[in-house]
Write the structure tokens for this entry.
Amino acid sequence: MLKFNRLVSGGIITNYYCSSRCRHCVYNSSPHWPKDYMTAELADEIFSTLRKLGCYAVHIGGGEPLLNPKALLPILKSAENHGIHIEYIETNASWFKDIKSAGDLLTELKSRNVNTLLISIDPFHNEYVPFCKVKGLIEACHKFGIEVFPWLMDFWSPLDAMEDTRTHRLEDYERLFGTGYTLQLLRKYPLNLKGRALNTFKKYLKTFSVKEILQRSAPCMELTGVHHFHIDLYGNFIPQSCPGLSIALRDLAKGAAPEKYPVIHALYTTGIKGLYDLAAREYGFVAKESYAGKCDLCHDIRRYLVRDSKLNLPDLKPEGHYMFE
Ligand code: SF4
């Protein structure tokens, strides 16, 4: 049974709602999600659980966490109360208006022990966020004493080659830098090919028959990672490599019991074949001819279970992951 007696480092997803719908987003965040935000009560429970499991530092991400600073501040207070260090807050800078108003927020964050912002710099975000906002936020960070963790500086030059007061599609990058630029992002950006990222890039990937994938099935040890997990605003623990799968925070230490978490149990004990057999036998899942590997098949089965079979399982949360692809 999959259980976690120790966690090292992870992230807190305060909201899935986002100003962008990036093509590389593994959590399928977008403006289509409800504007739900993590409560301070849940944050208390999360930070207290993390300390018990030996994790004393997290980052905060989303969605775009700085779309609702009023809701974020009590969460930072809770982290402080529990002795949890906030390594950085991820932001796409879409909320930036001017140095003065950004400075007010940065000063507030600093007073809550936030010293670093991870600021997205890449062509995916540039489809939604003009680069001038990113530049403005970086300038404000320098002025108000907040460290910048640029993600990634390698893209500064291509972004800077475009007009910075408006957004640009990946197709614009293809026109300027040549056909194949999107494909090159597979090498240039450290992508986790899950969620929307997999949908975006699977046309470039080698495909395998279902038979081949099932023959190679082995227990998915990817579910056991403790170095980059996430916990979301609904109290779901999301394994580091497998967005769309979840264990309720309260079940983490006692374990994902097979009868309550049949999907996780099948993947953890048998692998993709276990999930495929379960879905075909119990819910009439019919696979396509080929997939871009086991994770593509895994996602297709899970999407079917949530969207077509309307299953309400604690290991397939949040449903929005499958509804807002
Ligand atoms: S097959 Fe599913 S559980 Fe296994 S690594 Fe891929 S996404 Fe994760």
About this structure: The longest helix spans residues 294-308. The mean pLDDT is 97.
